[in-house]
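for the recovery benchmark. tokens below, seq after
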């Protein structure tokens, strides 16, 4: 997940880039930037490093289990293929 403090800081920096004549709406701009940043980054489906690592471990375990099941299936299939008389 994205650090909300960092997003707020980025929105503040963007609002500070506004030239002096438009300073009156700087706070409103900061809030708008913050909303846009949150929505855009939220739509990307980003995850934290911890969640990523947990999913990576889960995927590795699932892959190992699938490999074992494929090996069992191959063994079963070879046995049943040899046991069936061919016409």
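predicted aa per position
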């Amino acid at each position: 997940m994205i650090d909300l403090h960092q997003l707020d800081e980025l929105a503040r920096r963007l609002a500070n880039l506004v030239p002096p004549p438009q300073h009156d709406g700087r706070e409103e701009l900061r809030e708008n930037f913050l909303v846009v940043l949150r929505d855009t980054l939220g739509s990307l489906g980003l995850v934290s490093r911890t969640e990523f690592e947990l999913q990576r471990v889960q995927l590795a375990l699932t892959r190992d289990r699938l490999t074992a099941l494929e090996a069992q299936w191959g063994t079963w299939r070879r046995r049943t293929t040899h046991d069936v008389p061919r016409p």
